[in-house]
Give the backbone structure.
Amino acid sequence: MTPGPLDAASTSALGGALRGHALRLAGLLERLGEPAPGNRRAGVTRTARERELLAATATQLDRVGAGLQALVTSGVERSVRRRALDDEAARHELDIDGTRVTERPGPSRVDPQSRLRARERVQELVNRAAAGQGRDLAAVTRELEASLTALQSIAARARQGGR
């Protein structure tokens, strides 16, 4: 199944919100400071484990947020290139339908050889853009899966009291 169009504004806002929450968590950890020297016990304290879990959560939120924002950035860049390809296709009386470049129906005033070369060139560029989008989506998917695994581990450790 091919994913639908990316809602750039919502995706970017989600990425920004996740990164903002990561920063707030990191800020809270920083403001908490270290336990007082008299309150430290031998080995790792429960507070230290909780801090480690919060820091790991903040890291995962930041990673996912950054991945979503990178996806939006590359999508916007791809849209700009696509508009340029649409213009080039129109100059040669070609249409771009999804990932397929076709000749417009009816007679054409464009030289047939020039039109054929333009069609091949535009098709190649459309193919590259589609492949780039696939790579970007795969990278974000991998990032989300890795973060899901890490967050599941963090949740399990938190339920066990941070062990």
The chain has a mean pLDDT of 88. The longest strand covers residues 94-97. Strands lie at 94-97, 100-103. The chain has one domain: 8-31+45-159.
